[in-house]
Amino acid sequence: MTAEERAELIRALAGVVGDAHVVSDPAGLSVYQYDASDEAIAGIHQPLVAVLPATAEEVRDVTRVAVACGLPIVARGAGTGLAGGAIASRGGVMIVMTRMTDIIEVNETDRYAIVEPGLINLDLSISIADRGYFFAPDPASQRACSIGGNVANNSGGPHCLKYGVTSNHILGLEVVLPDGSLTWVGGPSAETSGYDLTGALVGSEGTLGVITKAMVRLTRTPETVSVLLASFPSMESASRAVTAIIADGILPASLEMMDALTITAVEAAFSCGYPLDAAAVLLIELDGLTETVAEHRDAVARLCSQHDAQQVRVATTKAEQDLLWLGRKAAFGTLGRLAPNYYLQDTVVPRTKLPAALDFIGYLSRNFDIQIANVFHAGDGNLHPLMLFDRYRPGQIQRVLEAGDALLTHCIDAGGSVSGEHGIGMEKKDALSLVFTTNDLAAMAGLKRSFDPRELFNPDKVFPTAFSCGELTNLKQQALEVDGMYVV
């Protein structure tokens, strides 16, 4: 794009959102050239221009300007994504949602709220707490991440064990499609006719459309909440306790595990009361009716003791509960005490394969000579190993990336997946070929091209580097023709 064409683009965009909400200078754009992923994975890519709309109609009109110029479009929420999903890898127009933060409607009768995509996750729960509701998806970054980002990545969090991930809490979406139209999909009714377009959009990482409003399900605040901290002499014994709790028919609201390395860092930062002699701790939250919670609390304590727990402690006050949770929620940041950088993986194994996966992580730590801290959602097997390193020490980044690839392969071989809740983005797009066949990927690419035939929405994400969506669908067509089937 020539300087004159860029100037004309900026004028057109300013005509939609106003001069003050178009960022085009290099210093201003530097804020949007990365997200929370490591630059060694996603790189640094500056958009041609960033636009901060205030309404759905402005998003629509910005999209129309960009599409008319043939420019890529990347939607960005709070920039907390860990997989490079909000990176402008081909420049183009970045649509930043930080001005769209309103709660438009709260309907207590039908238990939903309509919110804008830039609304911070935790702000929604705080705003409806006095009505006796909360928004269940709670990523570790919930103080900073946006609802739109949660929708894009189908985010989870510690409480997804009981309450499910974002897709379980989205009833409908307002979206700007690649053809420049603004439309609603889904709605308050649990039973809808036709294709589940809401389901297609949730988790699509901005590749099918730009979310401008979300109709989210509100969950009743439980009558009682109980938090337990159980310490164990090994990760294996803690893992066996996890399996025993679930097998006993108890479904905790959350069931989190941390290893000794993490415990040390957390205690140094916050003095949460985690025992420093433990090899692992389980943070267990139970909620529901008072009588049921009391029964389950006793059963969980008994099961932990049967699996060699050194200590089982029940938080007796709300302040004590909050302190225990502070250690878990802030754990990633405390690891900065141990190393200047970390590479956070996000992968899943069947719950019964946790001990073997943790053993393999120990092997990787020794084999690649890197420290690995473990903080993860043990209840559903969603691992979050943090590989600690110093980017300025030669060879460390490469070792960390190789260890991460080896872990992904191990988890897939164990019947798991490449991502639990952080999305695919740029980081894991090539790993999808380890899980899906070319025909599988071609089917997904066909969906992508039906929404976005020019492949302008968030390019270079999700699909493996070796193929464009067009190439994948062509391969699918060729395969069908070989089989004697013809696609029109």
Describe the structure.
With 488 residues, this protein is of the alpha+beta class. The protein folds into five domains: 3-96, Uridine Diphospho-n-acetylenolpyruvylglucosamine Reductase, domain 2; 103-220, Uridine Diphospho-n-acetylenolpyruvylglucosamine Reductase, domain 3, CATH 3.30.465; 224-333, Alpha-Beta Plaits (2-Layer Sandwich); 339-413, 2-Layer Sandwich (Alpha-Beta Plaits), CATH 3.30.70.2740; 436-482, no CATH class. 36% of the residues lie in helices and 19% in strands. The protein contains 17 helices and 20 strands. The protein has helices at residues 3-17, 26-29, 39-42, 56-68, 121-128, 147-153, 160-163, 197-201, 235-247, 260-270, 290-306, 318-329, 331-334, 354-368, 396-413, 438-451, 469-482; strands at 22-23, 49-51, 73-76, 93-96, 103-107, 112-115, 133-134, 170-176, 182-186, 210-217, 219-220, 224-232, 254-259, 280-288, 311-314, 341-344, 347-348, 372-377, 382-383, 385-389. The strands form five sheets. A seven-stranded antiparallel beta sheet has the order 15-12-14-13-18-20-16, sandwiched between helices. Strands 5-6-10-8-9 form a five-stranded antiparallel beta sheet. Strand 5 (103-107) and strand 6 form a beta hairpin. Helix 1 (3-17) packs antiparallel against helix 4 and helix 14 packs antiparallel against helix 15. It is globular.
